Amino acid sequence: xxxxxxxxxxxxxxxxxxxxxxxxxxxxxxxxxxxxxxxxxxxxxxxxxxxxxxxxxxxxxxxxxxxxxxxxxxxxxxxxxxxxxxxxxxxxxxxxxxxxxxxxxxxxxxxxxxxxxxxxxxxxxxxxxxxxxxxxxxxxxxxxxxxxxxxxxxxxxxxxxxxxxxxxxxxxxxxxxxxxxxxxxxxxxxxxxxxxxxxxxxxxxxxxxxxxxxxxxxxxxxxxxxxxxxxxxxxxxxxxxxxxxxxxxxxxxxxxxxxxxxxxxxxxxxxxxxxxxxxxxxxxxxxxxxxxxxxxxxxxxxxxxxxxxxxxxxxxxxxxxxxxxxxxxxxxxxxxxxxxxxxxxxxxxxxxxxxxxxxxxxxxxxxxxxxxxxxxxxxxxxxxxxxxxxxxxxxxxxxxxxxxxxxxxxxxxxxxxxxxxxxxxxxxxxxxxxxxxxxxxxxxxxxxxxxxxxxxxxxxxxxxxxxxxxxxxxxxxxxxxxxxxxxxxxxxxxxxxxxxxxxxxxxxxxxxxxxxxxxxxxxxxxxxxxxxxxxxxxxxxxxxx
RNA sequence: GCCCUCGUAGUCCAAUGGAUAAGACAACCGCCUCCUAAGCGGUGGAUCCAGGUUCGACUCCUGGCGGGGGCACCA
Length: 545
Hints:
The chain is α/β, with parallel strands linked by helices. It has helices at residues 3-9, 15-22, 45-53, 57-72, 93-106, 136-154, 170-183, 198-204, 213-234, 245-249, 255-265, 300-313, 331-340, 377-394, 406-412, 417-435, 437-448, 458-468, 470-479, 484-503, 512-537, and strands at 30-31, 41-43, 76-82, 86-91, 120-124, 158-165, 241-244, 269-272, 275-278, 289-292, 318-324, 348-353, 356-360, 363-365, 402-404. α19 (470-479) runs antiparallel to α20. The protein starts with a helix and ends in an 8-residue tail after the last helix. The structure holds one RNA strand.
């Protein structure tokens, strides 16, 4: 944590660091109180320490305050004990000046790398079936998984992003059969694929009318995967690895066969009605599950177990899977299988994304891939653009259902708060350009020397406090797998900047020391907004609008 | 029926057990001689219901009610 803020966090039992290291009572916080007259920062430490100390909370708060006063000296203007025993701290201008200097000195390192224990993490997301185009649900999954990966990486973890391609099983054969039928001018099989994209796909594949369905399926998968990768890249989502399910079935023995062997050795499988079952119900699942069908074919679940085992063997300390809500019934069996193979269930995180519902004329519409009725990722981006689409999808918590009315989204995209944040960034760029690069460099150097620039405007203090909260916001958002918090923070930061802009003249401010100080504050605000937009949310930060 | 998840203003949505529940859109009233009006200021408006735990509950527990999802030898 930042030095200036650490002055406070270092207080007995106060702050995040205090909670983590001191072993003090849980729930101690150092936070920005709801009202300015409650001080700049506030802690409930006394409320929580009081029972252990056998003293009234207000008395404990008084003692804490006195101790802090001694430690911080001129940085702490005064403190107050409030309500049931809150300790409210009022910080001096000196403290604020030092804090901004530290933000600027930290540069790219400001607020980042705070993970207490960095891990190698594999984030698997999207993993859309290659049998059709990606719809808005995949877009949400992509935006979320991508933002989460960015967040975890900035928080200090080593992150790998992976797309799992389900290129095996009956669905691929069905796709091949559908293409073969269309190529021959025959009707598509009853349970085949008949979306708008299938016919062009059939036309694209040379000699489709004379090739075998299995082979057509493979060719079609290659085309669809390539198409998905491109659509995702255009959405600013890139993957480090593309893992094919078919690989898990190849070789002798295959990865799937090996994992089935492992389960067998552990005595957690049995045969019944010609099929091989997993005793997953003994590990928290609702019922036992089939691994090998009576036909001799492996189930999807069997390859998925092999896939998760494979991830573990690749040395990831943590696996995060981002799944659609329609997969949540699958969670219990996956956790069970993971544990049955000796994995620590804590290290397998299965995140369920709630669905995106399409709304047309106020009514919910069903998205059906086989019927070809859905809004694709490309449609969404085409209608409202990458920035607005990403913000729209990322500004909501992953566990709330989103209703998407594309007509409304198109109309309202100009009202998207993303533009407000971008506008603040562009406005700063314009101000700094007006000041000139040399003047900005001089101002930054001056702040580092700690020049006295007089009293602070409340808007300046508020903006600095918001900037100082950045590291905590990253930590909180990363630990809770909640990138939407970054969107909230970015908006609040932009609002605080805009209030500062309204209240405080920057370029041309008198005396020069004030101008320097405010230019430096603008630089810190601009960097942090860009950090949020570009590096965390994958949204552009334009220099002009 | 069972399991999971969500219920906060007209709408969308935020809030590690903390003080008077944040913000956006929509509505209404004002503001461009001034570093970008994609902006600023102001007004009204919310925790599904009932119990419980706690000094303190939107938050945790129990029971309802409502929305969504899931309960295959499909993937």
